[in-house]
Amino acid sequence: MKTANKFQFLGLCLVWVMLLSPASAQMVTFKTLDKVTAKISRLETEVGRPTVLGPLTITVRTCKTTPPEEPPETSVYLEIDESRESKTERLFSGWMFASSPGLNGLEHPVYDLWPESCKMLADDVLIGKE
């Protein structure tokens, strides 16, 4: 195979990998439930930026969503810490899935949360499942 053909082939493979892999997002939307007041609300946070929900600190490490032509799925890797009496304890570290909120859910007596959608910033325009 000629060198130019090898580079074309590798470039084509790279394009296919990029097209077939889920897109990484910059913003994540969660639904939250306060079990005491039965209030459901939305929480929007940026990937990598800690967000506070009561005594919980939620830090999203990555959020991936499938392209529109595939069955919808949003998966989020996050860490949740709880601060009590100047002590911080890691409550959750792992993946959460929008299609299966009960699978790897947060176990907390007051708060419940599950991912809803990922959004990407592209030329200062938010795109993604809403």
UniProtKB/TrEMBL annotation:
Coiled coil: none annotated. It is an enzyme of class 1 (oxidoreductase). The keyword Zinc does not apply. Residues 1-25 form the signal peptide. GO terms for molecular function: oxidoreductase activity. The keyword Repressor does not apply. Keywords: Oxidoreductase, Signal. Its EC number is 1.3.99.1. It holds the Pfam family DUF2155. InterPro entries: DUF2155. This is Fumarate reductase flavoprotein subunit. It comes from Candidatus Micropelagius thuwalensis.
